[in-house]
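Our consortium's second objective concerns turning raw sequence data into structural hypotheses that experimental partners can test. To show how far this objective has progressed, the report includes one record in full. It was chosen at random from the queue rather than selected for favorable results. The single chain below, 993 residues long, was entered without modification.
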Amino acid sequence: MPPVRDPGRSRPTQRADCVPQLPCDEPGCNRWFRNLSGLTQHKRTYHPSFSRYPEGFRNNPGLLGSVEHEDHVADRSSPLPDHASDGYQGEDLLDREREAMSAKFIGPGSKVYRNYHPGLNARKCDDRGQFLPDDAPPPPCAEKVPNDWNPYHNQLEFELADFLFTHVEMSAKKINMLLEIWATSLLESGGQPLFMNHADLYGVIDSTRVGNVRWENFTIQYAGEERNNDPAPWMSNVYDVWFRDPREVIHNILANSGFTDELDYVPYREYDASNDQRCWQDFMSGDWAWEQADRILGDDPTTGGATLVPVILGSDKTTVSVATGQTDYYPLYLSIGNVRNTVCRAHRNAVVLIGFLAMPKTTREHASTPAFRRFKRQLFHSSLTRILHSLCRPMKVPETVLFGDNYYRCVIYALAAYIADYEEQVLLLCIVRNWCPKCLAHRDNLDENALRRSREHCDTVIEEFELRKLWETYGIVGDIVPFTNDFPRADIHQMLSPDILHQLIKGGFKDHLVDWVERYLVHIHGKSEAEKILDDIDRRIAAVAPFTGLRRFPQGRHFKQWTGDDSKGLMKVYIAAIEGHVPKDVVCTFRAFLEFCYLVHQNVITEQMLTEIDDALSRFHRFREVFPNAGVIETFSLPRQHAMKHYPYLICQFGVPNGLCSSITESKHVKAVKRPYRRTNRFKALGQMILINQRLDKLTAARADFQQRGMLNGTCLSKAFEVLGSHTNRISEGQDAADEGDEQTTSYEEDAGDTLDDPMAINAHVSLTRKYQRARAKNVGALAAELGVPEIPTILCRFLHSQLHPTDTRNPEDIPLYECPFFDGKIRVYNSACSTFFAPSDLSGTHGMRREYIRSCPMWRNEGPRYDCVFVVTDPQADGMRGLDVACILCFFSFKYQGTLFPCAVVHWFDRIRDGPDTATGMWIVRPSRRTHNLRNIAIIHIDTIYRAAHLIPVYSSHNIDPRGIKPHHSYDMFHSFYVNKYADHHTFEITF
C-alpha cells in the first residue's frame, strides 16, 4: 500500500455548513457538537453525574466526587444558540452499573479506599466466555508435573543454560571452550558435561515452549508517482519491518503468574480516607481508564463484565555503534496499563520489545526533499498500523484470555498511551517542529492559553483549510494519516504521555536552565571571568561528599556526550554549587523547577500535591523572568519546557508520570538492543539480535513457569545435599557460614543502591553488615583511642542506662555515673550498615523496597576515610525534619551486655540553624554540634533509631575556603555549615520538608 494520505478514509465527512458549534463545558473535555442531542448524549455517557451512592456512603456524597484539574486552557463555555435544542431525551446507559458501585478499603490501616468501575469489572469466566460466580474455583486446566523440567533434563541443566546465556552472555566460542574443559575433567570418571557444545545448548533453549512469540516481517515500498525519469534511490528500495504479534505478547503478560498480584484488573478512583482527597498512582487510577470504560459500555452495553487492557506503546531510535560507523535501530516496545508502575520500573519484563521499525536513508541530494520527508512519516504510521492490526477486532469484541491466576476473563483492548520524546511526538502527531503536541498554542507564544489538540478538531481543520494554512496556523502536517485513525476509540492527541526524562531532566534542566546560567555569567562578567566562575562551580560539585546513587564529576562537566544519568546527577547538587555566583532569583528558579520535578515523580500524587505542583510551576514562571530581564534569552516558547503546563491534567488522566517515562524504554534499549548487538558478529546483526531476544524471552518465561510450580526453591547445591544426606548437609552449613562471613560492602559500592522484591513489612530497618573488622578496636578503651574521643567509656555507660531504663526522663548528662552500668568487655567494629526502607518513588523492587549501605570506615577505596551522615528519628510524632536529626557516623560497633546484643553507632550530632528551610534553596541548613569548651557533641545511639543515610552539601557561599584542593572525603571536616540535600533522591525529598 502506498504510504500516502487516503482522502476517502481519513478526511471527515461533515459539510462546511455543519461545523460543530456546541462545546462540552466539562473541564478537560475537547468535544464539540452540532446540536443539543449529541451534546446531551455525550454528557450522559462520558460525564455522568452520580446520583446513586454505594451502601454506607449516602450521607457523604463527597466520597464519590472527583476534582477535575485544568491545565490552564481557555474557558470554552458559551451560551447555547436558539436552534441548538431538539428536545432530545436520552437514556442513561450506566444506571444499572452505577447502582452496583461499591467502595473498598485498600492496604493496612484502611487509610485508602477505592471506587471500582461498576461496568468493566473483570468478571471471571470459563474458556468459552461464560461468566462464573465470584467464589467459583478456576476452570480445570492441564496440570504440569512438579518435576517436569522439559526441555531441560533437570534444574542443573536449566540453571547452567540461563547462567551462560543470560547472565554471563558468553559467546559460542567460549561456551565450546568451557564445555571442552569440563568434558576433559570428566574423562576419568566416565561422565559427560550437561551440553556437548554451543549448538546443543542453543537447541535446548530454542525448544522451550513457553514465552514463544515468533518474529515475523513484512516489506514496504514506495508506490507513489515518480515525477521524473531519474527517481531517487529511496523510491526503489524495499524496507523490512520485523515484529511480533502484540496480541500474543499481551496474552503472555496476562498469563505470567509473577504478575498476578501486580495487576489492576478494573479502573478505579482512589481516595484518602482521612480527608476524601483523590489520589493518583498507577495507570488504572487515572481518568482515562474510567472514561474509556464508560465509552466502551456506551458503545456496546454487552461488554459489561469485561476486562479493559490499555495498550501502552513506546519507540525511540537508539545508536549502538559510532566508532565503526553509526549503526542505529528503531525498536518498538509494548506494555499494558494493568501492570503497576513499580513492576515496570523494576525492569521485570513488563515492557516487551515487539518490533524493529524501518529507518529509510537516502543521498544528501534527496534527504531534505518534501517527498522523502513525507514518505518517512507515512512509512512510520503505516508500519504501526500493520504491526497492531491483530488488536483491531478485540478492541470492539472482547476475547477470552487466560490470566496468571488460572482464571479466564473477557478482554477488550484500547490504545491508551504512547511513550516518546519530543522528536518522536512530532512524528506521531504529524505536527510541525516547535509546536506543542498537546495544545493549539502558537509556536511563537506557547505559554498562551489554548485548546487541547484532538482528533475531531484535526479532522475538521484538515477538511476546511489548505496544507499551507494548516502548517502555518495550526502546526499540522495535513498530508499524513496517523496510525490511530485505523483503530476504534484511538486518538494520538490524547495518547501522548508526560516524559520526565526528556522534557524535564534533559530538556528543562540541562538544555535550558544550566545553559542559561552559563550564558548569564558570560553576559554579566565577560567570558574570561565567567570561565573562572564556572571552574569554581565545577570544583564545588567535585568536592561534594559521596552518597549512594550520586554521580561523580571529578573532571568537571565539560564533556560532549551527556546521558540522562549525568543530568540526574547534576540536578542533585547544582543548586548549592551556583549559590553565591548568581542572583537569588536564579537560585529560586532552580528551586521551583526542582520541586516541580520531584513532586511529579512521586509514586502517589494527591489533590493537595497537585496544588503544590501548580504552585511550583507558578513560582518557576515568575522567577525565570530574571533571564530575559538580564538579556540572556529572548523567548520562553520552548516545547519541552512548555510541556510542564500540561502535567497536572496528564496526571489526572494517566496516573503518576514515573510509570510512563521514557527512562523505562531507554533502559530497555540496553537489554533488548545494545547488549544483544554487542553479542553479534556485526554482519546482518538484526537477525542475530532478534534470535538473542527470543532466547532471552524463552529463558525468562521458563524461569517464571518453574517458579510458579515451586521447582526453584533452593539452589542446585542445596538440593543435591538433600539427596546425598546429612554429611554433605554439614558441608552446606559450612559453606553458608563462609558466605555469611563475606563482607559485601568493603570492596565496592552499589552506586545505585539495591532493589528488593520483598514485601513491605516495615517502613525502614537498619542492620549491621555480616563481617566485623578484626583489625580494628576490640574493646571500649581501644575504640576511644582509635576515634580520638576519650569520653567514649562515659558515653557508653549513659547509653546503657538509657537502654535498660527507657522510662527515665532525665537528661543523660544529669545522671550520675555511679547509677549507670559499667561495661569493659569485648566489642566488634563494623565498616558499614545496611538500611532497608520503603521508597517506591526511587528505583526499587516490585513492592517499593530499596536497600542502601551506610559507610563508616577509616579508608575507602584507598582514597581516604568515609564517614556518612544519617537521619536519626528523635521525635516520631513530628513531621519531616522536625522529627529527624542529622548525625555523622564515626563508627558502627556491637557488644553484649547481660546476654543482650546491642548494635550501636558512635555519632557526631548536627544542629539545625533555623526553624525552617532556607528560603532560596528550600533546604534545611545544619552545622556540627558543639558542647562546652568547643568539644564535639558525641553520642552513642542504637541503630534502630537510624532511618536512612543523609547527604549534606557545604554552604559554599558562606565560606572563604577554596574548594580547589578539597577531596570529597574531606567535605564534612572542612566546612562549618551544610545544606541537608533534599534533592539527593526522591525519598529524601519526601521526608525532609
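The partners drew two points from this record. Residues 1-20, 48-99, 726-751 have pLDDT under 50 and may be disordered. Residues 545 and 970 are 8 Å apart (CA to CA). Both points have been shared with the crystallography group to help prioritize constructs.
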